């Protein structure tokens, strides 16, 4: 396996150059795809390897560009990364960790949001860290104030520079009492990765409890950390002096699984997602049941198809165990084919419906209400974010020339083009490889009719 992308996919398409797809839609997608380790765990577990005194092995690593970015950033810090004893596994050896040169770190600026999680591990290993300006999907402001506030509580000194953030810990890091203003996934991971080697106990309140975070806790426990999870989003971490490497198989990518499920519903096809598991997808499956999906849960994965006409639904995105914000974009494509009015409230990000412009161009009836709907009661008003999309269906979609805006929105564009009658040109498709492994191969495996034209 090479973690810097394959340039030619299994059926000979030029994947490396694949920025523009020509898609002929209107056919059901039917077949089987396999999902591997979750992007949102694997990249964090790779960072955790920095904390060990011995090498770690991570299994089921997907070949996606976010992994390549984190790998490269680990390598500039002296971590040796190579394929381990089975395909899709990585050995990460942190025994020669050293300060990287500023220019090398800077080369990663804007490429991903994961570098912010290097703070704690580098402070423990080297007493200092430099974090380049962050990238990631443009889906709102995406500030890092929770991260920096938490790091200061551990005793870190934070200097903001024009090119990034410099951190030091002159007196070492000590356990802290931290209450997050919101159960942020990244800030929870920041606290975990910093607290495990801090001096003393850390109590984290209002923590995120996504399955990927539970899996990161499992990784850290294998390394020697002592972490307990209490009711009501409280996590206790007892700092230890030394951590070793781990051997871990990553939890599956439930976001990718939900994406293919929505593709099956949108195109009236039938897709078996190998590696998908019920427990982590419970909330998604409840919504699919209401929408009229006929899923079948098997030992080795889940089969998704329609069970009659699709029905409209009202959903509100939320932190786990709520309906994930990353699931709404592909689901909305399926909801354009449901009979009636669906409503999707986005409460995690302030601006994550930009992708619907392209669907409207293709014939969908979607109206985005930036300030929410009058009188619509919110389930859990965790934040003052009210953006809502109202989708009226079913509407036939027709081909269009569209540009991918971000990872999940981009996947939705491709699925919309495959649902639409006629030919579409979808540009900027490279972004999708940040989070979907072997994307073109998988499209081909479910019978998508497309060419890579640029
Ligand atoms: N937030 C702040 N301040 C902070 C941190 C977060 O205000 O310091 C806000 C954000 O602006 C956002 C909300 O809190 O409105 C939630 O952000 P969170 O920190 O939970 O998200 P994240 O860690 O940046 C991860 C995933 C996202 C996923 C979210 C929510 C990774 C690399 N990214 O982002 O995944 O949508 O959690 O579950 O794990 C994706 O995979 O496409 C993706 C965007």
Describe it.
Strand 15 and strand 16 form a beta hairpin. This protein has 13 helices and 23 strands. The chain folds into 2 domains: 7-35 and 252-452, Enolpyruvate transferase domain (UDP-n-acetylglucosamine1-carboxyvinyl-transferase, Chain, Alpha-beta prism); 39-249, UDP-n-acetylglucosamine1-carboxyvinyl-transferase, Chain, CATH 3.65.10.10. The protein is 28% helix and 23% strand. A 4-stranded mixed β-sheet has the order 21-22-1-23, covered by helices on one side. The protein is globular. It has helices at residues 39-48, 65-76, 102-106, 119-126, 145-153, 185-195, 211-223, 254-267, 282-291, 328-335, 356-361, 407-419, 439-445, and strands spanning 20-25, 30-34, 56-59, 80-83, 90-93, 128-132, 157-161, 164-168, 177-179, 201-205, 226-230, 234-238, 247-249, 270-274, 296-298, 301-305, 314-316, 340-345, 365-369, 388-393, 401-403, 422-427, 449-452. The protein is α+β, with helices and mostly antiparallel strands and 454 residues long. The structure holds uridine-diphosphate-2(N-acetylglucosaminyl) butyric acid. Residues 39-40, 113, 137, 140-147, 182, 184-187, 208, 255, 324-326, 348-349, 407-408, 435 line the site of uridine-diphosphate-2(N-acetylglucosaminyl) butyric acid (EPU).
């Amino acid at each position: 396996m090479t973690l810097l992308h394959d340039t030619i996919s299994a059926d000979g398409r030029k994947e490396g150059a694949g920025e523009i797809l020509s898609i002929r839609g209107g056919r059901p997608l039917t077949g089987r795809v396999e999902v591997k380790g979750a992007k949102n765990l694997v990249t964090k577990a790779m960072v955790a390897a920095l904390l060990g005194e011995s090498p770690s092995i991570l299994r089921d690593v997907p070949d996606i560009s976010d992994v390549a970015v984190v790998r490269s950033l680990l390598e500039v810090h002296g971590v040796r990364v190579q394929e381990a004893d089975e395909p899709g596994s990585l050995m990460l050896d942190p025994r020669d960790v050293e300060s990287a040169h500023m220019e090398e770190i800077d080369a990663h600026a804007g490429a991903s949001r994961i570098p912010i999680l290097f703070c704690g591990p580098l402070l423990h290993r080297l007493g200092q860290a430099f974090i380049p300006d962050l990238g990631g999907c443009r889906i709102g402001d995406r500030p890092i104030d929770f991260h920096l506030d938490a790091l200061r509580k551990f005793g870190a000194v934070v200097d903001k520079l024009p090119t990034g953030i410099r951190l030091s810990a002159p007196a070492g890091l000590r356990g802290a009492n931290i209450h997050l203003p919101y159960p942020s996934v990244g800030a929870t991971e920041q606290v975990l990765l910093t607290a495990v080697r801090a001096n003393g106990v850390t109590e984290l309140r209002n923590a995120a409890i996504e399955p990927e975070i539970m899996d990161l806790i499992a990784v850290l426990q294998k390394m020697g950390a002592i972490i307990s999870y209490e009711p009501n989003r409280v996590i206790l971490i007892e700092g230890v002096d030394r951590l070793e490497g781990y051997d871990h198989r990553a939890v599956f990518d439930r976001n990718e699984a939900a994406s293919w499920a929505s593709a099956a519903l949108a195109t009236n096809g039938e897709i078996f997602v190998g590696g998908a598991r019920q427990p982590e997808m419970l909330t998604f499956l409840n919504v699919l049941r209401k929408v009229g999906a006929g899923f079948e849960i098997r030992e080795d994965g889940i089969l998704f198809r329609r069970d009659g006409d699709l029905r409209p639904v009202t959903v509100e995105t939320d932190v786990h165990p709520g309906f994930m914000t990353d699931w709404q974009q592909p689901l909305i494509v399926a909801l354009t084919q449901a009979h009636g009015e669906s409503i999707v409230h986005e409460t995690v990000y302030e601006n994550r419906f930009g992708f619907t412009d392209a669907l409207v161009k293709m014939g969908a009836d979607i109206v985005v209400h930036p300030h929410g709907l009058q009188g619509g009661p919110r389930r859990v008003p965790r934040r003052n974010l009210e953006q809502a999309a109202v989708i009226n269906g079913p509407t036939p979609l027709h081909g269009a020339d569209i540009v991918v805006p971000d990872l999940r929105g981009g996947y939705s564009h491709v699925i919309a083009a495959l649902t639409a009658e006629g030919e579409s040109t979808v540009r900027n498709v490279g972004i999708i490889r940040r989070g979907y492994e072997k994307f073109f191969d998988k499209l081909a495996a479910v019978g998508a009719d497309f060419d890579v034209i640029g």
